[in-house]
Here is the input.
Amino acid sequence: MPPPDPDLAEILDTVVAAARSATDRGIVASYIPALARVDPQCFGIAVATADGRMYVGGDADTAFSIQSVSKVFALTLALDRVGAALWRRVGVEPSGTAFNSIVQLEAECGIPRNPFINAGAIAVADVVLGDTTPPQALAGLLDFIRDVSGEAGIAIDAEVAASEAATGFRNAALANYMRAFGTVGDVDGALALYFGGCAIAMSCRQLALAGRYLMLDGLHPEGHRPVVPPQRTRRILSLMLTCGHYDGSGEFAFRVGIPGKSGVGGGILAVVPGRASIAVWSPGLNARGNSKLGSEALEQLAAATNWSVFTP
Amino acid sequence: MPPPDPDLAEILDTVVAAARSATDRGIVASYIPALARVDPQCFGIAVATADGRMYVGGDADTAFSIQSVSKVFALTLALDRVGAALWRRVGVEPSGTAFNSIVQLEAECGIPRNPFINAGAIAVADVVLGDTTPPQALAGLLDFIRDVSGEAGIAIDAEVAASEAATGFRNAALANYMRAFGTVGDVDGALALYFGGCAIAMSCRQLALAGRYLMLDGLHPEGHRPVVPPQRTRRILSLMLTCGHYDGSGEFAFRVGIPGKSGVGGGILAVVPGRASIAVWSPGLNARGNSKLGSEALEQLAAATNWSVFTP
Amino acid sequence: MPPPDPDLAEILDTVVAAARSATDRGIVASYIPALARVDPQCFGIAVATADGRMYVGGDADTAFSIQSVSKVFALTLALDRVGAALWRRVGVEPSGTAFNSIVQLEAECGIPRNPFINAGAIAVADVVLGDTTPPQALAGLLDFIRDVSGEAGIAIDAEVAASEAATGFRNAALANYMRAFGTVGDVDGALALYFGGCAIAMSCRQLALAGRYLMLDGLHPEGHRPVVPPQRTRRILSLMLTCGHYDGSGEFAFRVGIPGKSGVGGGILAVVPGRASIAVWSPGLNARGNSKLGSEALEQLAAATNWSVFTP
Amino acid sequence: MPPPDPDLAEILDTVVAAARSATDRGIVASYIPALARVDPQCFGIAVATADGRMYVGGDADTAFSIQSVSKVFALTLALDRVGAALWRRVGVEPSGTAFNSIVQLEAECGIPRNPFINAGAIAVADVVLGDTTPPQALAGLLDFIRDVSGEAGIAIDAEVAASEAATGFRNAALANYMRAFGTVGDVDGALALYFGGCAIAMSCRQLALAGRYLMLDGLHPEGHRPVVPPQRTRRILSLMLTCGHYDGSGEFAFRVGIPGKSGVGGGILAVVPGRASIAVWSPGLNARGNSKLGSEALEQLAAATNWSVFTP
Here is the structure.
């Protein structure tokens, strides 16, 4: 392994300092108590590089609710289960609407636009569920994340899972609506798995570790055996770039230029093919529902490292 | 200069052969006579590589109406004129709707979602127009394309320009609608420039040559002086990837993984950063309004060359 | 009581004859078996006049599923329970969209446009439910209909109610969606009452009898004691005219000119203030989801009797 | 002629007094200077009864810009010209959207929902225009209004007409959009007639006089010769009830119960079949774009007189 990159360590220091001193930190999600009480001053970042190094800054070891970032892992499992047949149930286009919009479903006959809006992720959960029970499927999802990250301690936050289920009426509406069109088969099961996945708690370090298979064209970071075929890996990255930040995906691609997936808990997983798996966390959200300081930190990092996928 | 790449030449042969023998060739645009009478059997491809080589196949020297591909060059000029102030008039998000939809404009107060849907391109044309006349601005656009391509013979197809203007009521509706919100200042001038730009005729070879500055991080292919700053070049590429194929942009990114911009004349300009500027042309369109065989050819080419931006 | 009106009897004969011989009879609803197997040849009509007469034609004594016609009676009960406070939860505007659309709910923050689209009727059911159980509330609704009609035998079709509940995913989506905004409190209870109300079976004769209080400015047909205040009665009639036929309400008002409420079972209740309470039934529906021959029969009847509310 | 109705005179006095003392008077339209400078304290009302009497109150003889109230007269002329063929170009359904929305046009292929939203009225103007010039057609519209009102002095406010044309970009967008679908043939001509009609200036007295043919089932108030066939008159009244107040039509029908048509100048023409033609004017508008005090005055008047079409 080569020696650590002092420039990258310095860049992270600069990024962390900027985030620490920011006054406009966005708005922390408040729809459930467990999210509402997170300290908006929190900020963490972790960068796992292709040469096996890990660079961290800020609250990189504090666990947070990964929420929709889990949709990347669920998508990986669903594609492993049914392959391209998944795309008969879910589209691959940016939505042009808010993350929990039901309008598009009506216009397009119950087929969600992509696997990263709520409706699409519920349809993906229904596929991951298959013939198993929600606890079994959730255990499978956790096992996958633990395996690719090498972090056996990753777990569900039970309070978050219960709160999500107790207040998730819009998601229940989406699931029932898709059930009417046959996109979803088991409304209650898909919702249970979906809520459970959103309630996974991870630190930036753990999340950056978990994303390495996407950086490595689908290889497992330990042993480099294939976890996901290369073409499928690239397609997951493409979906992250075009759809990973809800209706702010275009702006994230424009400003940062790196495939990423955000969660309402303030986390973002960003993956530079062949270079780095990056996790950032700051709980305050911008108007599009993505981490405000997290997005800005990734923009700074990308500018300083030239890590855009659009860089020659 | 290194010797030509025999593999790439062979790949192009395979791509051309597949396109020649395809039976479902899509539907040729028929809203104006000059487009309707183009032979659906046409297929051309040209690849300009970063090392200065040119590889061609099929009808690579037949001129066609580049239509919306011109929006890439107009965007480049508008950014050169007003810089980031452009983004006060035009967004950077995928539209989630058809190319000529007016619905989004109403929901978002006259600000088009991105510079590549018709409304956005008309707003861009209004910026390019500035204080000049439409003929002057159109001459400036042609000059830019001739300069970066090194092809002095590129010209407007006057019949196409006249037909566009005579039938462009939906575009006139978009322009008037944006005028009501102040997004556009000169309805008639912006439309005249817009229709003129759409009527530019180029061959695949010329178009691939013209796209080289985007491949080269903004450098002019002759002499390598900066034409566009690097960050702006990457942002144009990002917009091509997320918005370049109307409501089929997500699928193009998913299948091909290369920034591209399509036109209703059947042309596509696709740019692999640091690698290649590719033009393909086949007049039949798919359901999203993008060249059917052109899209498929680029998918084959990307798979054979590993030229996705998501490849490590 | 004056003698029967021979002209009216003759008009009904003509209307029945026209309906009997019609070849294009619309499409029978098929989303549940109990509706799908109804004979499309059925046609019935009943006219209860203000002078206490009853005129019938065709299958006027065959019970059918009144479906959404029940929304008129549920609205009457909800207004009796909470008065004008109902309008904080439900609007009074025509929807401009299909009967089961969820799009409008998103645009207008979970407040359904009117009490006769599905979402509005579910919100009304939640109000009627109050603190009671669905069986109690349903019994109350039946009691009201039996009382104003004088027909003690009116009952729920249990098969229809069970089928509605088993397939009602779009309605479950609407209810959950409104629950997210607080428009509905008890999703399962409101749905149970809603499905039960839709499953009430009545004949044309019974339905015309049940509608008499609306013809009589709110007086009970027996004894003429007030059931509903006059102003409220007129407002119910206004809602029937502007919203009673889903997105075909404008056309029904335009062609027939009489307040009416249709159901997907093919029934329509139409009320001419001070003149007549009319029920018509033919199971085939037009493109807007309203009884095709029923609408046409009412147009003929209105033309022959001059019973439009727009007649001097 | 019977003696004047002292009760009605007294009711008008009460209505005027309430309007005079109202503090929340709505917002005066400000998109053109001629409307913006109208005194919000103005309030006028005029009631022409079927027995030939006229009752007035407040500023009943002050001319104001009738704006969209003119759409009733233009519709009458268009139906006179082409009869029911008009309904191939324009629908009869409430819009469910704002008066100048272009969204619905896209969803429904360029056919406006009804003749009283802006798009529908522009399509109606195109029909009224026929083969004539805009000045000729406008003269014909004025002649009709002068004839049915008996008021030869009614005229166009040239300043308003010029301002409308100079700022009417949204209407130009609607017209161009409909031209793309063939709903409108002559964009500039239809717009010129439309803007001219909106600029007609009338007093409440004149407007109430002009509306009498609708009260009289289509008969001319002088001599009682037919101006409009009875069925067509009733259909115009039905459209006024279901569509006459834009997206506040349902509420107007609910509260007032009388067919009416409002204009952004603050005028409303309301017609009680067989009873009264009523004009009211107060320039401040409510959130739906209808005269705030005018609507409230009509609600009071209807309650005091029992003049709802839903009264037995």
